[in-house]
Structure prediction request, 616 residues.
Amino acid sequence: MELIQQLVNGISLGSIYALIALGYTMVYGIVRLINFAHGDVFMIGSFVGFYAVTMLHVGFVPALLLAMASCAVLGMIIERIAYKPLRNAARIAVLITAIGVSLLIEYVTIYLRGAQPEAYPSTLMPDRNLELFGVVISSQSLFILGTSLVLMVLLQFIVHRTKIGKAMRAVSHDAEAARLMGINVDNTISATFAIGSALAGAAGVIFGIYYTKIEPLMGILPGLKAFVAAVLGGIGIIPGAMVGGLLLGVIESLVSGLGYSLWRDGAAFVILILILIFRPAGLFGKNVREKV
Amino acid sequence: MATWKRTRGFWVSVILAFAFFAVVEWLIASGTLNVFYVNTLFFMAINVMLAASLHLIIGITGQFSIGHAGFFAVGAYASAVMTMKLQLPFAVGVLTAGVAAALAGLIIGVPSLRLKGDYLAIATLGFGEIVRIALLNIDYVGGASGMTVTHMTTWPWVFACLFATILVIANFTNSTHGRACISIREDEIAADAMGINTTYYKVAAFVIGSFFAGIAGALYAHHFYIIQPSNFGFLKSFDILIFVVLGGLGSLSGAVVAAVLLTIVSTFLQNYPETRMIIYSIVLILVMLYRPTGLMGTKELSSLFKWRKAAQGGMNHGGKNTVA
Prediction:
């Protein structure tokens, strides 16, 4: 029973990772960039949700939508200012810019509101425990899982059934050919950043509800772990990010369930190094041979 | 005579370096430099060592490593265990630090060879985090509260280590081995096709780079009285990366100058850590957007100003012959 309990916790945690990982994977798939600032977009989403609830006194759904919208705008701004001028630059330059943007968002937030943590209001979501075959499941974890699933289905719909989704797939396949076919590559990339960042914003609000405590540097570790999740599933592959996120959450919960809770953060990075060594393309990826 | 002409710059740099050492030693002994300046100087030297060692990995060999603080941490803790737990002399501590970090470099270097670019970067980042989390969980070295370490770092030690670092890295770059590393940076497949053992040289760069990062760690541990895992997070790795990138990837003197300048800047902004990080990040973004080659590009200081070098206080000795 203990095991199933941990499994349930792991799936809730994993769905948060999966939401963040989706943004990483979409952006990587389309511009081959590890968007280090993604974890900080997640943090901003969490704070927007928090201020929406405490200052505007709105409920869960409006707060979630507000956080998603502001993160989408933030993501587009970041892309336009910092990444777009570097589209043809060396990879290392782009990666370092991403690190710079990440530090900038973190410390501007600290500068504006201080580094002190904030507690999410617990009234946002009813916390009742559900007992199912002897396993206690909090209504919160179910709600988190439900929200993530809805968002993921929505994302699948956007990517596979809409025009912009088709454009995104085309650009990620071959940006040059897509441009020749009349697709506006810049707008498509902006849309990708917007969608990915909106998902991160939603993850931020959910994270706040689940863990209660939020602070300006909270995005770093979940951001890195979500990246691990994206690599685990095969970076650039959307279902891979979902599976990778859930898997990572479950593994982490099992590690803490076995009594090594202090090593929990290490587990993600050990997985990362193992997967990079033995299957760099990820679980769902195909190996691509390098040609001269 | 021809040999003298070729190595003249090198010997002049060495003499300048020793003159700098003697002057500073005299200033410290006579008490002209107060504790604050000595602290800044030591910190500067440690940062220069870190920057130079990362320069070898990123700037020369082109292997993008962003977990350098991990090696730094291994060195710091290894030396602290030697001197504090086993009561061995400082020299043993420094040497152990270097060897332990080099071993860590070997361990991370060998499997990482299968990775390139972004993936390598993330793997090294993961390595740095694993080191930090491991230190946090090992009670023998104090866990989160860290270890207290006696102050043993003196100016002659700092100078000797700094001198050795710069000398080895500059001469390595100029050697056959260094050329091989540069060819890997330029085009790994072509280098391989030309018969260069790319695996060997990539590991070598990792091992040498992490060796000196470890030594810097030993100096750091024995200077600041206390070491904690939180001092070695990836913000530290980014700090080191910023030195190398701002200085110009592929330029040793660029990395050295950037380390010196940024240490001075961060010393002045010590009381405003947020402002410091905001300035850092904005500078980083702007440099990448408008001058992605960094301050120096791949040029060395000596190729720009023949005489300005002396005014830099001998910090750039040895980099003279490097035109990477």
